[in-house]
Amino acid sequence: MAAEVLLALKEAKNSLDACERAVKATEILSSLFRTLSDSAEMSAAFRGDFYVDFCDYLLQIAASKPFPDKDQLNMDAFFLKGPPKDALFLLAESLDTKHDRNRTEIALNILERWLDEERLRNLLWNECQTAQSQKQGIRLLSGPTERLVKRIVSLPDLVANRLRVQNRPVFLPKAYFRLLAKSIMNVLVMIADRLRGGSDCSLGFLTSLVGKASIHGHADVIVSYLLPRFDSLTLKDPLWRRLAQRLFTDVPPQTLESLVGCLLGKIEPEKSVLDRLLGDAVCSNEKLRFLFTQKFTVMRSFSKDTVLLNVSNYLSSSERRRKILLEALESTLKVWGDSCALKNTPYDHHLYITKAILAFACHLRETESQKYKDALLRVLMHGVQSHLASPIDRLRRLGMVVGECVGRKLDSSGVELKFEYDVDDEVKLLWSLSKLPDDLNSLYETREGPEEEDSSESEPLIGKGVVVEKVDDNDSDDEDDDLKPYPLPDESKAQKKTPVYLLDLIAGLLARDDNDRVQASLEGAESLIRAGHSNLSDVAAELMKILLHLQDSFYFPQFGMLRHKAMVAAAVMCPHQAVPYLTSEFFNPHYSLTHRIDMLEVISSAARELSDPTSVKKPEEKMSLVALDQDGDIKSWQAIVQKRIESKTKRYHRPMPKPAPVANRFSQVAGLFFYPLMKNYDTPLNTMNLLDQDSFVLGRLVYTLGIVLHSAAHSPSASLMASTLLDFIWTLRFHSERYVQYSLVFALCMVLTSVSPAVLVCNLQSILLESHSWLKTILQSDDDSRIQELSMQAIALLESVLREGINT
């Protein structure tokens, strides 16, 4: 039979080569197609041994001798009704650039009709049957089958590379892979019917195809088409659940992440679709278990919370999977609380890990909390401690929120953790993820709501110095003599007096046992110091010392603010006496970190106020003994003349008054604020080690130095201060703490804005270029979004300064 087919094909080729008329060529192809179709044996022999060579010959003839439409339909029949696998390979090979444009256009036309007539579905169905007959699993696919999978997935790329901007709509990725997903769904329906009939069928080819398409970035289109259909089919049919589990979990391991990650992002958390699509595959599939416990919760982050909610809901919805839920919670807590990871993880990613912890913890049952309480609390408290030690406010707040929510879930009967922090949309989102509706409203009202009104209005006001006694209305006036007099609060206590003299102020601040006197002295301290008494310079250092060591023994509502304002007033009014005391005491070992932060805040606030020209008060004009007229107006001949001139003058534009020049009060004392703060920064103390664990204080120190330099901008000493600060920055440029890096970039920006570009380029050009390279390194190597933003701003500012300095 092969000989007969070979003879018929040879005669047809000879006739086509010698044919010069299109009608004759049409008759030859039509006759050949009928001859091959009438005999099943000849058709099988043609498909098996001669199909590829003859179809390649047809494409060559079509490219060299264009046929009319009728003849092209006859030629298309060989591709549309032939073996779909061979036809696809042959048509795709014709898209190669080594072939001429005519052959490519003909192949594209045939390929477009090949897709329209659902030949792709037939191809997938044939491959599933072939895999079942050969007993091939997903990991045992043959080489030709793997080649076919790659060819199907890469077909849009082949067409796009050939056509460029003239691509056809059917070959665009979204349309093509939607068609592929439709073909996969149709084949799955055929497989389901075959399984119900008692026959087996393999899903290995489909799973390999779905995995390959997913890893090439097309999982979104495929999942978007398949998910709604699987949602309805798996609701009541166990067979479709089995098919879905095999399709989504038996893909190659290297493609599982792309497919499942897209699946988690598409499913609504409120539905139980994921449970029906994956089943308990996470318990037996190690790769899937790694994805749910590590990759999707710790290593990767997603902008939406859908993935986390789907993961937590899926792991908690089955008894077999609850062990994996506890494993995921413990591993996530360990990564979240690791101090090294805390320093080197971007804030957005760390916030995502925090959400994962709250999403997992909300599903814990009471029995699980009691059973694993000790182990989880140990990891939790270590993480909370690491967060509270962080110098970044947002990280500390994350530790507080997790400590409150997870601690309450693990130990509901024990001592409840309570922290004070600002509540914003981010905190509210974390509260909602913790799924604590009973506690959320009370916690929100406690932090944000108004204070509760006193409900004991009808009761006597005990403890407030007032006693209300009930008097019977029937009592006569004669009985009033029997009432015992009770001293009123204003009569029992001396009225608070604000000190008028500095010595009285010092004595009042030292009266540690007199609550009212200390409070009155602290409230009037700022105004009394700014009054500028003649003996202020004599007691300024002593007054600064008293204010620095003053403790809030009576819990005043505004103690910190009043103390800070009084210290700033003393530093502003007497900088030569008060500021050296602060800078010298900063490195004294007998102070806590809180006191040192207070010193830096006072120094930076005083520097800003001294450099602000609007804070200079004009001296009050003294009344001169000038005679007053009957109307009470002071009149002189100059004022009268000027008034008449103004009344007779017509002005079309009134010039703006020129601001009066004001001397910079800070330029003379800038060195007192600046240089002493850098002399002992590298000397460790028993209570402070700036280069090690107390990096937050180091960051505040660098920040304060930048503020001081900016306050001394364009002063005679600014150039030398800038050079010194640049050397200081260069020494600490490799510090690993985030907050110190923020402060260093900020201080560099202060250098660039405080000194003229010409002076910087002339005196500090080399170190500025090195700083530019350092900022480039930070921008390329650091993944923290905030430090990248600061570095980009600093680079733009530095390049602007260099250009301006070189041009001048």
Layout of secondary structure:
Layout: H1 2-18, H2 22-38, H3 40-64, H4 69-80, H5 84-93, H6 101-116, H7 119-133, H8 143-163, H9 173-196, H10 204-233, H11 238-249, H12 253-266, H13 273-278, H14 281-284, H15 286-299, H16 306-316, H17 322-337, H18 339-344, H19 347-361, H20 366-371, H21 373-388, H22 393-410, H23 425-433, H24 437-448, H25 489-492, H26 502-510, H27 515-530, H28 536-549, H29 559-573, H30 575-585, H31 593-611, H32 637-648, H33 670-674, H34 695-711, H35 718-731, H36 738-754, H37 757-781, H38 785-807
Task: Please characterize this protein's 3D structure.
The chain has 38 helices and no strands. The chain has 808 residues and is mainly α. Helix 3 (40-64) packs across helix 6. The termini are far apart. 33% of the residues are buried.
**What is the mean predicted local confidence, pLDDT?**
82
Major beta-sheet overview: none
Tell me the total number of β-strands.
0
Percent range of helical residues: 55-70%
Sequence stretches where pLDDT stays below 50 over 5 or more residues: 436-481, 489-494, 618-634
**Quaternary structure type:** single chain
Quickly give the structural class.
mainly alpha
Sheet-strand content, in percent, reads: under 5%
Distance between the termini: 93 Å
- Specify the number of helices: 38
> What would you call the shape?
elongated
Give the radius of gyration: 42 Å
